[in-house]
């Protein structure tokens, strides 16, 4: 006899008149008994009698229920009810847990019975969750994790700021005034902006070590306790009393073998003996890789000039002082300095920003872009798994119907489905986190080149917590649709069903999922395509020089040994002579600061037309070159000549300018032979003898900036980058360079050996990283969407087998049937594209500042996207279409 | 001399304290004495019994069942081996105490019937 699955609503409502504990004990049983009897009444007397039966039963429930409520007031009622049955009742929670545990075991058995299907789901999720976890670890470590200093939110960074540049440096006298006059800081310290490299001797080999020079209170400002010894003292900021050093933990372990008695030991830096007074703790990071710190003497000639800006300021805000208040305070000091020193300080300010923002602000948008992209990939992965689970639940119609007939409620059935989905999500999450950890470990070095604070990136508590939440959320997301579906299933149809049970709604849901997946993967694909185009545009940029086959290295002359301009000049001349004479060397030159590695600026103006005040002249990069530098880098000589042997200390000072500076200094005129005045501490007049091509300043994306070049033989420095153009690369040329250097001076190391191509490439490292990851995500997304599409079409062909068989039996050609399937696939792809295009456009507009040379609606990029999606749609449709076209009509129209 | 009461005397007093049984309770106990059954089975048996008066509704039945379980006259038992019934079904059995209470109730009713017959006969003679 037919039994309704549920009693009418008024019966269920009437049951509520019983006390809860009574319903808990007897409710299900009463419902079952009444359902049984109702079925018998309907069978015997018809539906009207059954309705009367339900009504009378409900009335009886109401009266019995109220009577029972009165009895429930007696003491011991609840306990006696709980003790009366066989089931264990120690509070509802334990039973819920027991039931959930049972569901998990049933789910696990069910999943293990279909290992391939389960593995596909787990791996798909592992991809999404692993990628998202790894990216979140990156975002958390770089952007969110507080700096490793006490009360890091009080730390600020100060840039010098003038109208042309708000990220410049600060001059030492200005810094001293800020330190003395401002009241907003607990401490204000400064370090050399460009860092310093020390030649460390006294060991087996001379070593070139990255370090820093700082005001005495740098470690106190950071509240950085030392592992051993002390920081610097105020009196050590004086020339002659600054021969002390604080070393890093790593350097201490390496150079002194971790000797606890290191304090007081001698360390020879740049030829001068220093005393080790402190050792920093492991993991201290301020400037990248700085291993040796010495105090900066503020009374030396080079630190006494207000016009020379080369310090970065660090400050710790005083308690209760906000950043805005501190900014107003230093602005007031700056105004005072401007009044007192108009020639040097007009327009100069100290720009403050939170230290963490200064360190990571430039990577915030790209990191969030990548996090968003991988989040989209995870959604697509969830879509695929949801589709697989829907397909599975469609095929389990009979099993579900049997369970329902045996009395399983909708909630229980949904619980079984969700248990399976949580198991899959849990396994996918574990696998994903493990894969993410491995990926982070393998990519850490590469990441260090593109993001700051990589040492803070780890799969720590918050990251694992987020991964767990993701796994739970994905379990709910892709389990929900099948769970809801199973609640609504028609019992009779399920029992009849077999494999081809009607699942039109399930197919519609899966089709909708595929459309959504296509839309999302179009967004990713469009993003990747644009960033790849952007990267291509970047690589096509002419930097102004030819980087191939150029090797560079740094040589630094210790002032103690090379204590005069003559001595230094002789050294550089000898070195260049040797280098140019080497076999295979096309050209060799020197420059103080290589392209794309920073730089100094200063003012200059035409001697014939000095501006008032003087520092409203032109601002240009300042470079010192020697030898065949321009030839080595193939920077074209546009007019005039390069520096020659005649340009030495005894001859009039000459300079070369680049094209854009020439045009600005002397618009429309020939610059050769004209004189300019350059601000080099004191004004220096020089004649323009040559014009060279423009060179990009910081990276390929930055525009060329004005540049002037002095001859290193006329203004001789103590450190330079060698640039050698020779075939064979560093492997061939570097040993030769080292040998030549050793012949000149045994104690001089060759440091920082790089190819110029490597330097240029490093400047696009972030763009490459972005494009690579986006490309990877988009390929995966498109593949997943393609797999989802294939699944939908394959199921559709299977379920429409009979219809297709009838069509073919009535004369439809196989080709037509195949095209029908392909059309279905294309329709889904087109629907996804229509949804996805505006989404993609909006999304890319948010990050267009990261694009170079392309706009968000770049036609070339978008046509690639449409092409790829079309191809994937075709591929995904091909197999189901072929299968449909090759169906045997006579078999197809047989019943199941 | 006051004798100490034994446990059997206490038990007898306990059983006596449960009498008289309600009609429905007795019908339910008698239905279960015929064999272990589930709730609906008992409802049907009671309804079909010639002494029950016919109608018995679910709410009324389960209230009575709860009280019988509270008094330990009825206990829930495991479903019989091999039953594939709805998992919501529960099975019940009369306890030993329940059996003795039914016996005591029957003795009480028999005594009542004998007395009623005696009274009727006496009343017939007096008319």
Q: What does the model show?
A:
- The complex is a heterodimer of chains A (896) and B (127).
- By secondary structure, chain A is of the alpha+beta class.
- In chain A, a hairpin with a 5-residue loop joins strand 4 and strand 5.
- In chain A, helix 7 (172-181) crosses helix 10 (323-340) and helix 24 packs antiparallel against helix 26.
- Chain A is elongated and about 125 Å long.
- The two termini of chain A are 25 Å apart.
- Helices cover 60% and strands 8% of the residues of chain B.
- Chain B is built from 5 helices and 3 strands.
- Residues 1-5 of chain B have low confidence and may be disordered.
- Chain B has a 3-stranded antiparallel beta sheet with strand order 1-3-2.
- Chain B is globular.
- Chain B has helices at residues 7-17, 23-33, 39-48, 58-70, 96-126, and strands at residues 37-38, 74-77, 91-94.
- In chain B, helix 2 (23-33) crosses helix 3 (39-48).
- Chain B starts with 6 loop residues before the first helix and ends with a helix.
- Chain A binds chain B through residues 18, 22, 25-26, 28-34, 36-37, 56-57, 60-65, 67-68, 80-81, 84-86, 406-408, and chain B through 38-40, 43-44, 57-60, 62-63, 65-66, 69-70, 76-78, 84, 86-90.
Summarize the structure.
In chain A, 53% of the residues lie in helices and 16% in strands. Helices cover 60% and strands 8% of the residues of chain B.
């Amino acid at each position: 006899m037919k039994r309704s699955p549920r009693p009418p609503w008024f019966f269920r409502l009437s049951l509520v008149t019983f006390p809860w504990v009574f319903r808990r004990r007897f409710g299900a049983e009463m419902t079952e008994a009444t359902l049984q009897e109702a079925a018998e009444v309907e069978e015997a007397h018809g539906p009207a009698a059954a309705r009367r039966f339900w009504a009378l039963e409900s009335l009886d429930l109401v009266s019995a229920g109220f009577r029972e409520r009165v009895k429930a007031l007696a003491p011991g009622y609840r306990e006696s009810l709980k003790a009366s049955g066989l089931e264990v009742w120690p509070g509802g929670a334990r039973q819920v847990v027991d039931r959930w545990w049972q569901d998990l075991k049933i789910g696990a058995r069910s999943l293990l019975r279909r290992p391939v299907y389960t593995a596909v789901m787990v791996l798909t999720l592992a991809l999404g969750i692993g990628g998202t976890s790894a990216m979140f670890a990156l975002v958390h470590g770089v952007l969110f994790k507080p700096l490793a200093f006490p009360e890091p939110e009080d730390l600020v960074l100060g840039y010098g700021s003038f109208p042309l540049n708000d990220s410049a440096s600060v001059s030492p006298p200005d810094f001293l005034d800020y330190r003395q006059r401002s009241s907003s800081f607990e401490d204000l310290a400064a370090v050399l902006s460009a860092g310093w490299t020390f030649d460390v001797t006294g060991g087996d080999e001379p070593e070139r070590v990255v370090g820093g020079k700082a005001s005495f209170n740098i470690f106190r400002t950071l509240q950085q306790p030392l592992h051993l010894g002390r920081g610097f003292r105020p009196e050590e900021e004086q020339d002659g009393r600054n021969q002390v050093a604080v070393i890093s933990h790593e350097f201490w372990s390496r150079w002194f073998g971790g000797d606890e008695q290191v304090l007081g030991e001698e360390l020879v830096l740049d030829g001068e003996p220093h005393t080790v007074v402190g050792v920093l703790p492991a993991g201290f990071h301020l400037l990248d890789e700085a291993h040796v710190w010495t105090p900066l003497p503020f009374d030396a000639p080079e630190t006494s000039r207000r016009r020379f800006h080369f310090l970065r300021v660090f400050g710790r805000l005083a308690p209760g002082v906000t950043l805005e208040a501190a900014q107003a305070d230093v602005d007031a000091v700056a105004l005072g300095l401007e009044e007192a020193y108009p020639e040097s300080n007009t327009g100069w300010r100290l720009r403050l920003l939170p230290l963490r923002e200064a360190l990571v602000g430039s990577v915030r948008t790209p990191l969030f872009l990548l996090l968003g992209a991988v989040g989209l990939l995870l959604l697509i992965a969830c879509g695929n798994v949801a589709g697989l689970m829907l397909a599975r639940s469609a095929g389990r119609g009979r099993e579900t119907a049997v369970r329902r007939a045996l009395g399983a409620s909708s909630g229980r059935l949904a619980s079984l489905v969700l248990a399976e989905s949580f198991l899959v999500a849990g396994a996918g999450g574990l696998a994903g986190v493990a894969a993410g950890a491995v990926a982070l470990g393998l990519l850490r070095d590469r990441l260090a080149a593109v993001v700051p604070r990589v040492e803070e990136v780890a799969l720590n508590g918050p990251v694992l917590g987020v991964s767990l939440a993701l796994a739970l959320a994905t379990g709910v997301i892709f389990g929900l649709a099948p769970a809801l579906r199973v609640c609504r299933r028609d019992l009779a149809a399920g029992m009849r069903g077999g494999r081809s049970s009607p699942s039109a709604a399930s197919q519609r849901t899966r089709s909708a999922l595929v459309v959504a997946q296509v839309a999302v993967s179009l967004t990713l694909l469009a993003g990747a395509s644009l960033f790849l185009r952007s990267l291509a545009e970047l690589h096509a940029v002419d930097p102004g020089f030819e980087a191939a086959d150029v090797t560079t290295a740094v040589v630094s002359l210790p002032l103690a040994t090379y204590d005069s301009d003559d001595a230094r000049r002789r050294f550089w001349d000898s070195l260049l002579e040797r280098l140019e004479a080497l076999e295979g060397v096309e050209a060799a030159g020197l420059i103080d600061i290589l392209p794309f590695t920073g730089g100094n600026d200063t003012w200059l103006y035409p001697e014939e037309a000095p501006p008032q005040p003087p520092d409203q002249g032109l601002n240009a990069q300042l470079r010192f070159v020697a030898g065949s530098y321009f030839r080595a880098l193939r920077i074209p000589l546009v007019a005039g000549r390069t520096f020659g042997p005649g340009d030495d200390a005894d001859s009039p000072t000459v300079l070369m300018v680049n094209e854009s500076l020439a045009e600005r200094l002397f618009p429309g005129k020939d610059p050769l032979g004209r004189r300019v005045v350059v601000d080099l501490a004191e004004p220096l007049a020089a004649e323009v003898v040559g014009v060279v091509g423009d060179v990009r300043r910081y990276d390929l994306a930055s525009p060329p900036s004005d540049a002037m070049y002095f001859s290193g033989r006329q203004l001789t420095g103590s450190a330079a980058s060698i640039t050698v153009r020779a075939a064979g690369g560093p492997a061939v040329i570097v040993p030769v360079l080292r040998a030549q250097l050793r012949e000149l001076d045994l104690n001089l190391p060759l440091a920082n050996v790089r190819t110029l191509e490597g330097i240029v490439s490093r400047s696009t490292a972030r763009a490459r990283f972005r494009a690579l990851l986006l490309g990877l995500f988009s390929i995966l997304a498109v593949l997943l969407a393609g797999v989802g599409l294939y699944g939908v079409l394959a199921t559709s062909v299977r379920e429409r087998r009979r219809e297709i068989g009838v069509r073919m039996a009535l004369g439809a050609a196989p080709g037509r049937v195949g095209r029908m399937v392909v059309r279905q696939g294309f329709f889904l792809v087109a629907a996804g594209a229509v949804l996805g295009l505006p989404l993609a456009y909006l999304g890319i507009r948010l990050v267009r500042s990261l694009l170079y040379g392309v706009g968000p609606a770049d036609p070339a990029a978008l046509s690639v996207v449409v092409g790829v999606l079309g191809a994937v749609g075709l591929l995904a449709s091909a197999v189901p279409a072929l299968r449909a076209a090759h169906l045997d009509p006579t078999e197809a129209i047989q019943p199941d | 001399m006051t004798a100490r009461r034994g446990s059997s005397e206490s038990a007898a007093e306990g059983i006596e304290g449960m009498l008289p049984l309600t009609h429905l309770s007795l019908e339910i106990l008698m239905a279960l004495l015929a064999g272990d059954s589930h709730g609906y089975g008992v409802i049907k048996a009671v309804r079909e019994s010639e002494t029950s008066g016919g109608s018995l509704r679910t709410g009324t039945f389960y209230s009575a069942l709860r009280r019988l379980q509270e008094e330990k006259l009825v206990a829930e038992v495991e479903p019989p081996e091999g039953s594939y019934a709805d998992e919501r079904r529960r099975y019940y059995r009369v306890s030993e105490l329940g059996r003795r209470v039914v016996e005591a109730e029957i003795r009480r009713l028999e005594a009542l019937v004998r007395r009623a017959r005696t009274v009727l006969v006496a009343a017939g003679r007096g008319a």
